[in-house]
Amino acid sequence: MHSLKGKVAIVTGSARGIGRATAELLAEHGAAVLISDIDRAAAELTAGEIDGDTVVFAGDLTEDRTPERMVEAAVDTWGRIDIVVNNAGYTMDAPIHKMTDDAFQAMLDIHNVVPFRVLRAAAPHLREPAKREHREGREVFRKVVNVSSVSGLFGNAGQANYSTAKAGIVGLTKTLAKEWGQFKVTVNAVAFGFVDTRMTVAKTERSLVDIGGRSVNIGIPHEQRAAIEAVIPLGRAATPREAAGGVLFLCLPLSDYVTGQVLNVTGGLPSGMSW
After folding, report:
1. Residues of the chain with pLDDT under 70
2. Using an 8 Å Cβ cutoff, are 149 and 107 in contact?
3. Looking at residue 1, what is its pLDDT?
4. Using H for helix, E for strand and C for coil, what is the string for the chain?
5. Catalytic residue numbers, as ranges
6. pLDDT in the model for residue 275
7. Burial class, 47, CB count within 10 angstroms (exposed 0-12 / middle 13-18 / buried 19+)
8. What is the CA radius of gyration of the chain?
9. Which of 36, 94, 144, 218 would bridge 99 by S-S if both were Cys, CB 3.0 to 4.6 A apart?
10. Exposed, middle or buried, 102 (CB in 10 Å: 0-12/13-18/19+)?
11. Domains assigned to the chain
């Protein structure tokens, strides 16, 4: 059933992990999808493996004008935008007494400033069609889904920067739900718990990857993974596709009357994680 047939979606950070799974699900349900990622090769690989209409936009969304160029790429390709999923992000963990200004600001930049700029750039393409549709007596819903985390809802030791940023995206979500409701744009967030991605892969020692010129530690020790899974009522981490299912729901017509909400996709995890 192609419930999103004819819709156009932007998914940031969609070359890997939850973002890729989200792009795949949206395409399976009929949407055309812009695959946005800082890693062009990975984005092109993902786009080539998705059975559907896709286009690749590669760039660092924290750089000036890049969010605007991404929105323009979608509009130039398909002439419209119906869905925006702000998923791009990563972590830079440390206890606060060891955290640098750069590490704190980096989380605000990717998790707060980038979604703000993306949605500001997308605003005319989400709002203006609704004005015409209103005059014609039609309701056409468009969707925004912002990715938060249980760390932003409950806090998490070692993540003062990430938790602050993920709490901030909830505030942006609830504000835009109020501003854009009149235009039939629903704005919701998903708060993920423990999801199996490259950021949470089990390792005895953390390894480094380059993200936007920064060396970022990824992976957590096996024993800490086991401790987290032990307190999840469903007994394990989510797969990226399971996590993306929550995003898909908020993009489908089934959720047209849901806005300003935070959907916890956690397997029942009762509070924030601590690693």
Report:
1. 1-2, 199-210, 212-225, 272-275
2. no
3. 55
4. CCCCCCCEEEEECCCCHHHHHHHHHHHHCCCEEEEEECCHHHHHHHHHHCCCCEEEEECCCCCCCHHHHHHHHHHHHHCCCCEEEECCCCCCCECHHHCCHHHHHHHHHHHHHHHHHHHHHHHHHHHHHHHHHHHCCCCCCEEEEEEEEHHHHHCCCCEHHHHHHHHHHHHHHHHHHHHHHHHCEEEEEEEECCECCCCCCECCCCEEEEECCEEEEECECHHHHHHHHHCCCCCCCECHHHHHHHHHHHHCHHHCCCCCCEEEECCCCCCCCCC
5. 162
6. 47
7. buried
8. 18
9. 94
10. exposed
11. 8-265 (3.40.50.720)
pLDDT at 94: 93
Tracing tokens 């590669």 back to the chain, one arrives at 58
What's the pLDDT score for residue 235? Answer: 86
Give the pairing type, strands 262-265 and 185-192. Answer: parallel
Position of tokens 């984005």? 43
pTM: 0.92
Q: Tell me the HSE value of 20 on the side-chain side, using a 13 A CA sphere.
A: 18
A 10 A CB-CB count for 76 gives 10
For the record, the structure tokens of 180 come out as 């854009």
Task: Say if residue 23 is exposed, middle or buried (CB neighbours under 10 Å; 0-12, 13-18, 19+).
Answer: buried
- Residue 273's Cβ-count burial label (10 Å; 0-12, 13-18, 19+) is buried
**Strands 142-149 and 83-86, bridge-based pairing:** parallel
